Amino acid sequence: MVARFGGDEFAIIQSGIKSAADAEKLAKRIVEIVGKPYRDKGREMHVGVSLGIALYPGDGRDADTLLTNADMALYRGKSEGRNVYRFFEPGMDALMRERRALEADLEAALPKREFELDFQPILNIGSGEIVGAEALMRWRSPSRGLVSPENFIAAAEETGLIVQLGDWALRKACSVAAHWPPEMRMAVNVSAAQIKSGGFARSVISALAFSGLPANRLELEITETVMMDESDAVLRTLSQLRGLGVRIALDDFGTGYSSLGYLRRFPVDKIKIDRSFIRDLDRRDTAAIVRTVIGLGAELGITVTAEGVETEAQLDMLRKAGCGQAQGYLIGVPAKAADMSRLLRSQALLRQSG
């Protein structure tokens, strides 16, 4: 029996099974079938599903307990990735309590001004000069210390808080960049939830107006999850912002279902090669993929930025391949706004003296 709770939540009651292996077999089949791509009006679409499984009577003898425990298993699965299934385990209740405590602290953190932005420089490989930076959100909690974005961004997206956090980060980043040299660009990460919120374009325009930053100095980094939802509203919003001069960058390029298809459907200004490819540049097949992406960018007139550059050997290979920009610990670690400003001033002085 399949029942819809609401939104994108469903519950399945499987009866007459002999062991947990039967439930696992059904879960695998659901993940496999739902995850297959399908076409609608000429477009390839993808849907993912995650499942939490609780077994009667070991995991509960009444409906409420079984649903609660299945929900805990579902949260565990989502925290480890998408398109997965997980069985309930007794220790998961502690994980759920911690998740709820994290969400409560997260909700209170923004009005308490516990969030900060760090800025990682982006290098023009040809000129050897810094041409901008990416804003990276940090949460410094009085009780938790410095919380990794990997631990709180997902929770913010699931609770909807990412819209408020994103608006704050956008306005803060634009205000910082407004004091940088006029050739410097600021890159800000944007989640699918922000764009779907309905007021994203107004938030961007407001941040630019508040800070005085010209639109062409702002880059919005979107992931393929945004492009996968090709609703007219999403494409309209991105087109409107691009029309104002805001640049659109496709982040984590090459890690999704159909990266090349996104370039055909929506013209972006930049593609960022995911760090996983740069890490394995010493492998022949990976190096060939990276060179191909760089060549594709050149053919389409799209700037290509390599993320996660950590060695001189990686930078040298990218330079020889004609890659436009590089970002990573070799170029510079994420720094506070004041440190980034000092770096840019030093670069300007060196340029003048040269």
Q: How would you describe this protein?
A:
The protein has 354 residues and is of the alpha/beta class. It folds into two domains: 2-90, Alpha-Beta Plaits (2-Layer Sandwich), CATH 3.30.70.270; 103-353, EAL domain (TIM Barrel), CATH 3.20.20.450. It is built from 14 helices and 15 strands. The strands form four sheets. Strands 7-8-10-11-12-13-14-15 form an eight-stranded mixed barrel, surrounded by four helices. It has a two-stranded antiparallel ribbon with strand order 1-2. It has a two-stranded antiparallel ribbon with strand order 3-4. The longest helix is centred in the first third of the chain and has 18 residues, at 63-80. It starts with a strand and ends with a helix. The model has no long low-confidence stretch (mean pLDDT 89).
